[in-house]
Design a protein that fits this description.
seven-stranded mixed β-sheet; alpha+beta; eight-stranded mixed β-sheet; FAD/NAD(P)-binding domain; 3 domains; single chain; D-Amino Acid Oxidase, Chain A, domain 2; 15 helices; 507 residues; 28% strand; Glutaredoxin; 24 strands; binds flavin-adenine dinucleotide
Amino acid sequence: MAGRSSETEVLIAGAGPTGLVLALWLTQLGVRVKLIDKAPQAGTTSRALAVQARTLEFYQQVGLSQAIVDRGHRVSAINLWVKGTGTARVPLGNLGEGVTPFAFPMIFPQDEHERLLISRLQELGVEVERPVELIGFEEAGGQIRATLSAAGSHETCISSYLAGCDGARSKVREVLNTDFPGGTYHHLFYVADVEAAGPPVNGELHVDLEDSDFLAVFPLADTGHARLIGTVRDTIAKDHEPLEFGDVSERAMQNLGVNIKQVNWFSTYRVHHRVANSFRRGRTFLLGDAAHIHSPVGGQGMNTGIGDSVNLAWKLAASLKDPSSAGLLESYEPERIAFARRLAATTDRAFKAVVNPGAMARWLRTKVIPAVAPSLFRIPSVRRAAFRTVSQTAVNYRGSPLSCGVAGKVHGGDRLPWVGVNFAPLSSLDWQIHVYGGAGAALEALSQRHRIPLHVFPWQASMEAAGLKRNAVYLVRPDGYVALASTEGGDGGIAAYLAEKRIKALR
Ligand SMILES: Cc1cc2nc3c(=O)[nH]c(=O)nc-3n(C[C@H](O)[C@H](O)[C@H](O)COP(=O)(O)OP(=O)(O)OC[C@H]3O[C@@H](n4cnc5c(N)ncnc54)[C@H](O)[C@@H]3O)c2cc1C
């Protein structure tokens, strides 16, 4: 059936967390978007729970972090159990103190998270169009021509760019014919959101390690509510099809003393670890689960998709404002694919350590880890390293074509270290220059000439501890990463960098 046609700057296929954040960021940057989703309504199940500190820092840039901090749940400790016996309690407290304003592990269920993003987009005049399915597209003449299907009729959408945020079974990835190599774990997982009582439903995280599987009890914000994630034993998986909560719940109830009053959501799923061979072809990009999927160990999946969106948004905005800046888009794939591959490998190792049935792994899991974890976690450098890895605040783009120089301990490509006052200007979502100490006249002149604000922060000892160098120059990207770090005098080489990379202020 012939149908309507539409036109936009960026067509976003998929309104999960990745597509919603991309739409939010682009809209804030003045880019017109069309956001479609084939599902008739937003997700209603909790799925990803962890919102990492780096995600909250991005949200602080768009004024959203406080809403999540207010509604989410801070996890104050992890308790390790071995075969039903409580063996260790590791307090988390302000684990990342001094690293980030969001120094604590935060839990906020994905459905509530999506609802918050949707309402923020509505305030900005953007609605998710649903149910609207992307069924095909082609690139020709510097445009994307996409075919969308809604209620039996077809729509042609012309856009400058297409963002494939359409999840693990991505249509965009399929049309691009991009390989998605990796594998599927043999274990079957289950998730359940429950109303419950008992020692592990005390607002803390509880992990029960067994000979060949595990069970985790995550606190939810409402008292008496918890999320259980576990692996289903092979014998149970074989004997019960389809599985029901009663088939898997016995261990939680017996070993951990969880008294389950009501099950609000139960699902089983297989976990894959795959990274697409390429994240871009021409004017089409892959982001989020469409580009990479991995084990939920460490709560990284959704946060990584959000990181993809923030990385791509300002580059798209720059290219749309001035096509001569389109070279910036070339940095999206190398910056994000490198991180996705590392993440898939590390979550794979962590996951195997948790479920490996071998005698050595079992001994490590049930004897060594519970014995040494609490003492290890008392060592400040260990706490800090663990936090920086899991919170994604250690993610850097040092190998990127956009990254240049080093000043103090900060390299081009590093996340701008947080020193209390210096994150506020990041809310401009635009390029900026930071100096900690004093700035010379050449820098002031460059800042005015290029309309890139110069922020000078009076020197404090804490800045050196964070790795910054007094009077050095840091050119900061719209996503809060350092592009150029320099101890040269004058303008620190910024004018030459801006000319070479064809960078201009976004607004
Ligand atoms: C049962 C379950 C439990 C999970 N638990 C965890 C967890 O504990 N921790 C964790 O980190 N992660 C977990 N995840 C993974 C997490 O939910 C994903 O990483 C996250 O949703 C990825 O976001 P996304 O926006 O990239 O993709 P998705 O959330 O999958 O969103 C993709 C969207 O695209 C839409 N779409 C698909 N095809 C089309 C098309 N052709 N046209 C238009 N729209 C389309 C879909 O309807 C969907 O809304 C879980 C996932 C599941 C399913």
